[in-house]
Amino acid sequence: MTAVHQFVPALLPRDATGDHTLALRDALRGAGWESDIYVEAAHDDLWPEATYFERYPERAKPGDVLLYQLSTASPLAEFLLGRPETLVLDYHNITPSSYYDGWEDHTSAKVALARVQAAALAPAATLGIADSAFNAAELSHMGCRTTAVVPILVDIADRKPSVDEAESARLARQHGSGTVLLFVGRISPNKTQHHLVEALWLYRRWYDPEARLHLVGPAFTESYVEAVFALADELGLADAVRHGEHLSDAQLAAWYADADVFVCLSEHEGFCIPLLEAMQSGLPVVAFAAGAVPETLGHAGLLLGSKRPGVVAAAVDRVRRDDVLAGRLVAAGHRRLEDFLLPTTRTRFVEVLAGLAEDRGVRS
């Protein structure tokens, strides 16, 4: 094995998979392997880092390993299934289509296709690498013969930019001294932001009538977004639920700094990078124990077995009232981040691929 080339549907800036792909390319080259990135599409700023995947056959060499960043439907799946080279999957999870049924038919169809493609790729792969044991179990269920767990490559040290002070002042003027609950992630049915709205309603009735909910992330499923904010309006929370979208890194840092508790009630997460961002920002975390959330969070948050509004509201109040507990969660978060430092995860990824080379009895 002298080359490990990556294939990714879209190489995008400020994107978890895009950042991971670039960091992995650098790690592979640092380990002495040739490594290029082949794409279906790329952002204009990143084309110097990428090549159209159709050009790979003219560049192919004996011993190449093709590593596919799997998270969505793409013509790359059929292309790779037709190649003779060793295939490795790097699986970032695909949301089940059932979450989009009744909300957005085209999204439901796309993720259903992605899962069909994943099920075809998994048995053909020599190795499946997943960023959580939750994802690895899915790969195994789909027929992947061998799996390994390596957290997503993310430069935690670079994900805490300076806070936009003007944005901080604007947020503070909006809510005064009320408790701020924050969740970061695309507004999508699997993230269940509607449960956050319900929890806010009860938290305001029982504990803090001035509390607010901040939702940060792209409006991914338009009909669901409309339903979430319609629910907020119906519950009298129209002025208490704010949506942040298209934020700069400094503005996002301001929303984290402005919050009091990070609350995640998502039902399906393959890793959940915002949990790491919350830890780095010094926020105590309250989270529903589903998907890979318990695995990513470790002991750095208050894990809940229920999303009932009363349970969530009581947990947030406990964290707000108990400074010792909040401090312990924040300190545990800082310790937990050490497990995801880029030098550690990059070394682990290279070790896994080096093991693949040894199993094949070829030179790495």
Short summary of the structure?
This protein is an alpha/beta fold.
- Sketch the major β-sheet: 7 strands, parallel
The CATH architecture category of the largest domain equals: 3-Layer(aba) Sandwich
CATH class of the largest domain: Alpha Beta
CATH superfamily of the largest domain: Glycogen Phosphorylase B
What's the number of extended β-strand segments? 13
What is the string of helix and strand elements? EHEEHEHEHEHEHEHEHEHEHEHEHHH
What is the radius of gyration?
A: 21 Å
For the largest sheet, list the strands in their spatial order.
3-2-1-4-5-6-7
- Overall tally of structural domains: 2
Ranges where pLDDT stays below 50 over 5 or more residues in a row are none
- What does the overall shape look like? globular
Would you give an account of this structure?
The chain folds into two domains: 4-149, Glycogen Phosphorylase B (Rossmann fold, 3-Layer(aba) Sandwich), CATH 3.40.50.2000; 157-339, 3-Layer(aba) Sandwich (Rossmann fold). The chain is an alpha/beta fold. It starts with a strand and ends with a helix. Strand 1 (4-11), helix 1 and strand 2 form a beta-alpha-beta unit. The chain is 45% helix and 16% strand.
